[in-house]
Amino acid sequence: DKVHVFAPATVANMICGYDILGFAVDYPGDEVIMKKTEKLGIEILTITGDEGKLPLDAMKNTVSHSAWKLFCDLGLQDSFGLSIELHKKMPIGSGLGSSAASTVSGLFALNELLGKPLSKNELLPYCMEGERLACGAAHADNVAPSLFGGITLIPSYEPILVRSLPVPENLYVTLIYSKVEVPTKDARKLIKDKVQLSKAIKQWGNIASLVAALYENDYEEIGRSMQDDIIEPNRSLLIPYFNEMKSISLENNALTFGISGSGPTVMALSKSKLGAENIEQKLNDFLTIKEIEHLSFVSKIN
Ligand code: HSE
Fold this sequence. Notes:
single chain
């Protein structure tokens, strides 16, 4: 009558694939402990690691909102109740899919607690509702990789489809979160709704070659494909020293560098753990000199 689950942080967009590509990392992430209770309803007992930022109101928190919807759709709301402990092991509002990790951990925990009545494909639409609650748009490029793991592609939103792509063996990411607030809702407003054809052509070329490169384990082509001229120029303005961090990363053999999700976290990809750690060190040194408060992670894509 009790489950303990982990849902990973995710890097949405993979630079070139706005709202359609994303990957999961092995760390950080969210942990949820969910229990059946005699008391009806859903209750968040504790939240740790959020610096008091997240609501304890179960209808306002992504960890419980969609889980409750699923619970009611299954007609269980009069049979027993649910209690949740949420342990956030990742920064909030950072571009690392924090709301998605909470949504996925809540729904995944519920599904496990009930003996897995739903498949992951069936859980996905519920997960997307958590994103709607968090930022007003039911984008799937964080929840899909958090739920399925690895690298995911959303080939279609109507109907929603998800496809797992191959994960090259030695792909590591350096994640740098500068402590400035960039809510996804605001970051989405920065994007123009019209795209120049020449830029669109470049972008769909990038996406196609990225997918091919993942199938072929071609690390250099993965890096070359992960470029973005459409969204990065606007969003990068909100990230302190974005261009400098990009230069430092590329000088230190990053395969590519860009914004993680809607930012402010940035990501550099490497083909070894050592390479990713070296970039982490260089960027940490740089930001420390510039007196920018930040966190860093080196994670494996899986
Ligand atoms: N695709 C979304 C965006 C991801 O870029 O707004 C948000 O993390």
